[in-house]
What does this fold into?
Amino acid sequence: MRKVWAIIRREFVERVRTKAFILGTLLFPLFMGAMFILPGYLMSRSLGLKTIALVDATTSGLGKQVADALQAARIGKGEKARPRYDVIRVAAVGRADAVRDSLVPMTGLSRKQAGGFDGILVISDSTVPSGKAAYYGANVASFDDMQEMAGTIRPLVIARRLQSMGVDPAEVMKSVQGIDLVATKVADGKLTGESGAATFILAYAMGFMLYFSLLLFGTQVMNSIVEEKNNRIVEVLASSLTPFQMMLGKVTGVGLVALFQIGIWGGVATYLSTHQDKILAAFGVAAGAGGRMAFALPSMKPDLLIVFLVFFALGFLLFAAAYAAVGAMVNTTQEAGQAQMPVMMFVLMGFFSVFALVRDPNGTAAHVLTYVPLLTPFVVPMRYSISPLPLSELLLSVGVTVLGLVVVVWVAARIYRVGILSYGKKATLRDMLRWIRTA
Amino acid sequence: MNGSVVRLEGVTKRFSGHTAVDELSLDVPKGGIFGLLGPNGAGKSTTIRMIMNIITPDEGRISVLGKESASRDLSYRIGFLPEERGLYKKMKVVDQLTFLGETKGIGRAVARKKAVQWLERLGLSDWTLKKVEDLSKGMQQKVQFIGALLHDPELLILDEPFSGLDPVNSQVMKDVVVEEARRGRTVLFSTHIMEQAERMCDRLVIIALGRIVVEGALADVKREFGGRHVALTFTRNADRAARVLADRSLIEKVDDYGASAEVTLAPSGDADRLLRALIQEDVGLSRFEVVEASLQSIFIAKVGADAATAPAKEVVHA
It folds into this structure.
């Protein structure tokens, strides 16, 4: 056991020391942080006061109304709210194009140039029937900004139309009020207060985590075995450890690295989500500005966490052992790329079954897949997160998975045992069967 | 198992149709240096791999340190330097050695301490904290050699330990091996370089095509092959000398160069009798030398023809 422990420690320590690990561990949270702060930050920048020249070619007074509405628009809510637009209305009945052309040279550099504008909005009498208004600005690419402006103008135009039809706009607004379906999860006959969206995010997130870890670390297991074969260190190891011990040590060591890295990432994500207002404030972003992006990590209850960890561990060991066998079969990383396809397919099947089953987590398909060893690590935590499985089903599924694990490890260890010491020629399927039988 | 540290009985190993080791039996006694000699492809590495339980023989029995097929459980008593050198390139030298020690079953702290001591002894102290990939090939080989010795094993199995080393480093390693043997350790090493074997081995076997061709203590082997040749130079009475050399009960073959000759003794003759006869005939001997055959010449004589037909490289195992 001490020997296996030496292998585990070596795998862990040497891997954690690599630049790739350190960079990956640091960059991912930075990336997450950037994803989290940047949109809000950029938005609050772009949401700075905009100076708009309103070319008013209306005879009905709509231009004045629009100017007032824009002037009244606010960024943020409550006390911190500040004006969104500074509107300068230019009356231009009958000569809208000429006025617009005269304003164009002053557009786009407003912040540096006194008397300049961010954009020119042209409203004319035809705006009401055609539903078209023109905006000329330095930055017209921001979909959100354009939507925001159109949204301010839209009700005024609709009101005009309704009035012309003799309908009271206020009545209509009231009557078209939409409905929101507020979904709340019920578990164990109790209200959880957990929203439907959070449940789905959690189900996906768990599947994704396993998928991601397998892609990243499964291939690491495979490649490091190819490397050990190539530099012949296996001979020294094989003289003092059984191939099974070698494989166990490697898979466990790499698994711990995976948990360690994911733990760091999870910790950072949790911190970001619980302290998001403070962090955003530190970057000078108003809390409301990022409101659309604000994300809440779904909370994981202890029982779900246990189910997830058990199946994550089983799934990781199972697939990592399969990857180890692939590594032992081949001689170069290029060959490994091809040879891993069958393993890869099962990983993908598992991952996509999460997407497929999340719609109907208690359907027949979901029930069946709960007992398919290679897929359970993906399927069961997902099902459990949406509606907890009865303990009997859960245990049976764990049992089936463990059985699958034993079979996969047994086969993999046999392939590994012969494979690690065979160089040069690529193993055929027939070789493999022979190895499994005779090893 | 009495006294023999490694024993092979009728061991055979075949690889996809070709027999690498053919009913090989050998006994490595406790203590001393045992040479496993042979040309490339003779089956040396395969034999060693089977002894190390890395591969299993198709037939026959192997016992190591008195136990059968359990060399892995005894790994803390065995040091192994494989033919194919291999180290983790990205690991620091001292970490690497500590790890190797641990896989042999000794404690971490002990392994580390010993690693530092050995590095110092082999002149690698400056490289303790360097990565293996920064070392020259010769230095890497020394590091791997330390890895085999670190846990102070009673049996050292070295597959081609000196290949690729310069004479200075070769000497350093040879000294270590000899010292280990003096301390009562058993060393089994393979080589195809006969000069080394000649200087170091107490006992040896020469194998070719998976079979033993010559075996025994070095002195016996040499006597057996070398004691039959005598080089002579005489200064007078060449005709009388010729008469002595014509005695078929004494001499089997003569290469006569007039004033000198190289003779091969007959099975019934011996060098003493020849010398006495020549002195009696008063041939004015200026040289009488019993030529000891070098291991090299024995090797070439015994396996020369076979070696030429042996496969160029040891075949991979399937």
